[in-house]
Amino acid sequence: MTTLMIYSIKSAIIIALLYIPYSLMLGKEKLFSFNRKILLCILVCSLILPLLNLSYLSLDKHPVVHTAQYQMIEIGIPIKQQNASNTGSTSQSSTLSWFTLLSILYLTGMLSILILRVIQFHRMRKQIRGGTLWKENENGITTYCHLEDVNPFSWMNNIVISNKDYEANGREIILHEKGHILSHHSYDIILLTIVEIVQWWNPLIYLLRTSLHDVHEYEADDYVLSTGITLRAYTTLLIKKAISISPYTFANQFNHCQTKKRIKMMNKEQTNPWKRGKALYVFPVAFLALCAFATPKFTEPTKNAGMPSCIESSTSKLMITEASSPNPSSKDKIDRPAEYPGGEAKLMEYLIRNIKYPDIATSTSIQGKVMVRFIVEEDGTLSHFETTFNDNKFKASQNETTVTAYQKEDLEKLTDSEKIALAEKALRAAAVRVLKATKKWNPAIEHGKKVRSNVIVPITFKLSSEKSHIHGYATGIQQDK
Predict the structure, then answer these.
(1) Which end of the chain is more exposed for a tag (fewer CB within 10 A), N or C?
(2) d(CA 333, CA 335)
(3) What angle do CA 355, 360, 366 make, to 5 degrees?
(4) Largest Cα–Cα distance in the chain?
(5) Which of 294, 298, 430 is nearest to 362 (CA)?
(6) pLDDT, tens digit, 9 for 90 and up, residues 114-165
(7) How far apart are CA 444 and CA 86, in angstroms?
């Protein structure tokens, strides 16, 4: 469920990055067919790009990306939910985390939209053939004339019109609906509906739906005018039909778009074709999204001096582990994550007893959060330590280690940049030192075999005017191969 939730968030980012520039630069241009293709491209990209993981495009080593990952960890958002065996009350509480509840709400919304669209589709299909006075097939397009008063609409190769409308303005209305059919607008609506089910919570998808339906109407209107119908006669018909409303979201409706917008667009001069060049923004934005979503494959330390990033997670947020497999292309998941002997509670006890606030950090009033990244080898030893320090930009949570030390009131704060740098280095070293001194860990298990894994542990150093003390809370494990 969490995997689907993360996919939806990525999809929403794609829509925001691509649709907002479109609405600002191309939305009002008289480039109907071209704009329609751009909107369809946005929908396709929102479905496909979040699924692509091109490791060579990864920005994971960039400090900004690291900071963003850590912030997600701090507020409890796992990067991808996996099944990990956690024991104790920590596992039970994390199972009912706010993110889990949000995921359940998201799935409920998806099912609700799906059911609603299925009901609308069923009613529309029933309406097409129900109460037909007569029908006529011409060049593969079937027109159904109804005795009752129904608003004209089309779906696939079918046109529905009331006998009253047919006798009054049958030619213009049928030509309009034929324009929808010849442009295959029904397939656009199916694609839009799929994205809408995934993005039901995103207000931009409804704005995009309006934009796409507007373009559909512009194209159909343009087709009618191309057949010789005068602009004055056609706009008069639009105004007369403006008060009608159709309940079928799926269908292409004769008066779906706002009449004023349609008339304004029909009277607008043709846009310079060179303005299509504005759409080139799609390529750099899509490339940036691919870089942001990419996660690097784990490589041997001799081939990669940096630490692999966390790309999968379980149910908790203090420790993240990422494991390596002999077959990097394999997509199998880890059976059991790496853990400190005795579990999370024992690790917390160890940290509380052994970690110390460096003197130089207290004398320079330096505090912040150190994120320690390291590898748990197959034999349980730890290697390849790396740290990231956030100075005074931390927010302590109940699932992290907080180190608090006494700050001497009579000691002036030192401002020398070199001493501050040394203090930060001392905090990093203190965090690494206490983890290096741990006993061998229990390595991650995959398919019954021990595998290497990457772990992140955040430790917050906080100054206090009260008695020196150290706080500790339950930790958690997140795992991926």
Answers:
(1) N
(2) 6
(3) 85
(4) 96
(5) 430
(6) 999 999 999 998 888 888 889 999 989 999 999 888 889 999 999 999 999 9
(7) 13
